[in-house]
C-alpha cells in the first residue's frame, strides 16, 4: 500500500506502460483517473478495479481534455496528488529534411506539448492538495539520440528539460518532478515500430539479455511518487537494462 491515500492521474493508460502504471498504482493503494484516446483499451485497463479506478476518455494534446481530467479527479476523489505523463509515440524512418512542418508539429505536440498541457492543468490542483509528485515518461532516445526519428528525439529531450524546470519552479509548492527514460520496452508501440529481428537484436544489446517490461517502468514511477522517493527531485532515471549507445 505504498501509495495509499493518494489520488493519481495517469495518461496513456489504454495500454503499454500507461496501463501497467495505472494498475500498479491502484494495486498499491492509490485511486486513479486513467486517461487515453483509446476508449476500448482504457475500459480494459480499468476492468476489475471498481471504484479505485475511473476511466476518463481524453486527448492529452487537448487543453480542454486535460482540464476535464484534472477536474474529474476532484469530483470523484476530492483531490489530486500525483500525475504520470505517459502519452507518446513515433514512426521512425525519416530525417529532418523529410519532414513536412505539419508532421513535425504533430509529433512534437504528441510527445512534448501533451506533457506541458497536463502539467499546466494539474499543478494547481496538486498544490491545493498540499503537494505531490509528477513523473514524466521520456525515453532513452531523448538522451542518446536515435537514427531517423528526429521529432521524437527532440520532443523526449524536451520532456527531460521541462521536468527539470518543473522541479525548480514548483518545489516550494511541495511538488516534486522527475523523468524516467525507458530503454527498449516490449510494448504494443515497440511491436508496431520494430520487426522481430530488430527486437531480437535489441534484446542482445541489453545487459539483462531481454527487453524491459512495462511493469518495470511502472514500479519506478511508483517509487518516485511515494514517500520512498521523497528526496528525489529534478532527476532523470534511466531504466534500460544496461546498454551502450543509441538503437
TrEMBL record:
Q: Give the superkingdom in one word.
A: Bacteria
Do you know which Pfam families this protein is assigned to?
adh_short_C2
Taxonomic source organism = Sphingomonas jatrophae
Q: State the UniProt keywords alphabetically.
A: Oxidoreductase
Similarity annotation: Belongs to the short-chain dehydrogenases/reductases (SDR) family.
Family matches, as InterPro entries: NAD(P)-bd_dom_sf (IPR036291), Sc_DH/Rdtase_CS (IPR020904), SDR_fam (IPR002347)
* Entry's Gene Ontology molecular function annotations: oxidoreductase activity
UniProt name for this protein: NAD(P)-dependent dehydrogenase, short-chain alcohol dehydrogenase family
PROSITE patterns, per the entry:
ADH_SHORT
Q: Which SUPFAM superfamilies match?
A: NAD(P)-binding Rossmann-fold domains
Amino acid at each position: 500500500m505504498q501509495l495509499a491515500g493518494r489520488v493519481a492521474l495517469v495518461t496513456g493508460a489504454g495500454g503499454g506502460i500507461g496501463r501497467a502504471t495505472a494498475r500498479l498504482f491502484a494495486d498499491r493503494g492509490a485511486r486513479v483517473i486513467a486517461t487515453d484516446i483509446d476508449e476500448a483499451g482504457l475500459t480494459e485497463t480499468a476492468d476489475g478495479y471498481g471504484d479505485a479506478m475511473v476511466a476518463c476518455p481524453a486527448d492529452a494534446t487537448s487543453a480542454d481534455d486535460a482540464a476535464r481530467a484534472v477536474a474529474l479527479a476532484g469530483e470523484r476523489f476530492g483531490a489530486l496528488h500525483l500525475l504520470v505523463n505517459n502519452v507518446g509515440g513515433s514512426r521512425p524512418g525519416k530525417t529532418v529534411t523529410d519532414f513536412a512542418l505539419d508532421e513535425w508539429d504533430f509529433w512534437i505536440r504528441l510527445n512534448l506539448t501533451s506533457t506541458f498541457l497536463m502539467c499546466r492543468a494539474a499543478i494547481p490542483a496538486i498544490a491545493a492538495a498540499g503537494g505531490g509528485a509528477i513523473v514524466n515518461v521520456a525515453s532513452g532516445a531523448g538522451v542518446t539520440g536515435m537514427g531517423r526519428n528526429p521529432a521524437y528525439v527532440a520532443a523526449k529531450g524536451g520532456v527531460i528539460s521541462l521536468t527539470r524546470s518543473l522541479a525548480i519552479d514548483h518545489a516550494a509548492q511541495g511538488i516534486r518532478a522527475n523523468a524516467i527514460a525507458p530503454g527498449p520496452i516490449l510494448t504494443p508501440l515497440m511491436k508496431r515500430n520494430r520487426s522481430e529481428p530488430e527486437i531480437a537484436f535489441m534484446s542482445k544489446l541489453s545487459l539483462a539479455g531481454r527487453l524491459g517490461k512495462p511493469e518495470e517502468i511502472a514500479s519506478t514511477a511508483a517509487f518516485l511518487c511515494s514517500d520512498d522517493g521523497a528526496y528525489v527531485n529534478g532527476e532523470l532515471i534511466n531504466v534500460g537494462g544496461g546498454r551502450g549507445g543509441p538503437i
